[in-house]
Specification:
Strand order of the largest sheet of chain B: 1-2-3-7-6
CATH architecture of chain B: 3-Layer(aba) Sandwich
CATH superfamily of chain B: Thiamin diphosphate (ThDP)-binding fold, Pyr/PP domains
CATH topology of the largest domain in chain A: Rossmann fold
CATH superfamily of the largest domain in chain A: Thiamin diphosphate (ThDP)-binding fold, Pyr/PP domains
Order of helices and strands of chain A: HEHEHEHHEHEHEEEHEEHEHEHH
Number of helices of chain B: 10
Oligomer: heterodimer
Helix content of chain B: 40-55%
CATH topology of chain B: Rossmann fold
Number of helices of chain A: 12
Distance between the termini of chain A: 47 Å
Radius of gyration of chain A: 19 Å
Number of domains of chain A: 2
CATH architecture of the largest domain in chain A: 3-Layer(aba) Sandwich
Shape of chain B: globular
Chain lengths: 299, 276
Amino acid sequence: MYDLGVKNDKVMLVNADLMGTCRNRKFAEEFPERSFNLGIAEQNMVSFAAGLGHEGFIPYAFSMAPFLTMRACEQCRTDVAYANLSVRLMGTYAGLSGGISGATHWSIEDVAIMAAMPNMTVVEVSDPTQATQIMDQTLEHEGPMYIRSSVEPVFKLYADDYKHTVGKASIARSGDDGAFICSGITVKYAVEAADRLKADFGLEIRVVDMHTIKPVDREAVVSAAKTGSVIIAQDHNVYGGLGSIVATVLAEEGCAAKFKNIGIDDKFVAMAHAPYLYNKFGYDADGLYNSMKAMLGVK
Amino acid sequence: MLKTIDELTQAAREIRKNLLELCSKQVIHIGGDLSVADVMTVLWQYQMKYDPKNTGDEKRDRFVLSKGHASAVTSFNQAAIGCFTKDDVINEYATDEGRFSMHSCNLVNPYVEVSTGSLGHGFPVACGMAAALRQKGNFESRVYVVMGDGEQSEGSVWEAALGAVRYKLGNLVAIVDFNGLEADGKISEVTALGDIAEKYRAFGFNVREFDGNDIAQIKENFDSLPPADSEVPTVFICRTTKGKGVEFMENQPRWHAGKITQEQLAECIRALDGKE
């Protein structure tokens, strides 16, 4: 955030008492005049950010994803999306990454909620270089964006010179024997699964990193479908997330492929560490490895 | 721009006639439009720095209608200062491709700074705008935001009140149209709103409480606002009468929204003119 503040003096920071959790304290310290902390009042935070947006600023409003997208849902929709303002809604604790905090702090519906808002671009990043490049693009992007991230936000998956562009999927692994389409934390697991499938069976499995969930990269989806075997994985409820969006594209484009949508299986469960939960719902590296192996019928 | 109390009184009467004419054609939120008509007339036709020919002027005052259902009274005041004509409002109101409807929408009406309708949104948005003006070095413009009294039940109103004081938004003027009635009945029976002036005072606002249907009092309170570069936000608690100016509507919950007949219209206009 601090770097964005240096690059562009229209950047404003808006917090709701989670500056530490959201890791933006440096901006607040360096640019106190461009930083607002509205206290534990997410609705006010989002509306206030909209007010800044009306006056031509680019506010970045931070909270945990469930509070941002559900407590302040109507503010995101009516004050930000309806007015088509260049407000950046930054939600951490995506999916089950909040782990032992439990369901109150998980965000398993946010993609469905935010993608349903007209004008809203929805993003989830997987890699530090990707995150930096996409954050730079948020300075130029017209209209609102929702950016979700996990508690441990990113893992090194790409070479530093890889160019990531909002609206265009990145390819973390190439291959034509099958494809994973993922976003955020599941990209890392899909890469691990693909590498093991290559080592164990010589399979070349593509990993499509759909960091821009809306608008989805239709070409990348159609191309992935040509491998004949597509597995979607996202740290989100299976309803309304990346899987639903990709499935619509596949149907609309008349693609025929084996298809599996992996995510949270439409249920609330008790608190546990995130890796345990990812394993339980089958979208850690083991789960994705086994699902692709089964889909391809290799033993 | 009007100047005298007589001119403003006459202008408010015209706004009421416009509202009633519209109300004879369409269902509008006539009760709340009438209660806030005097404040809106003084605000739009006297107080606000706003040039319809230069709506992007950085030095303009901003207006946010947090009680979004008072769109008709806003549109007629905008017509009075030349944004469009009164007949535009009457002819286009609630039509499929019109610029005016139950709530105001800036997708079709560029004189609307912020689209509103759902309650408890305009006030916090206005706070963000007020903070933004300061950040831009604009210490001249004010942000005016009009709320309803029933709207004070929304938690986001009080979240915004905390932030407005914390960020010293002396350029913010919140106006509460306290007509004492909300959709389901008397405020005192629906919610335990209590002494709203005392509540805002406790939050740290500069509080003014006066008769919001008395043009002289309204004007005097606008005239004596603290400077826009001051550090304490102001709230006007305007004691008003819902349906003000139309005898059969006054203090009647059923006239929160409605439509009148041509006969009723003629009777209302006669009554209003009789008060000259």
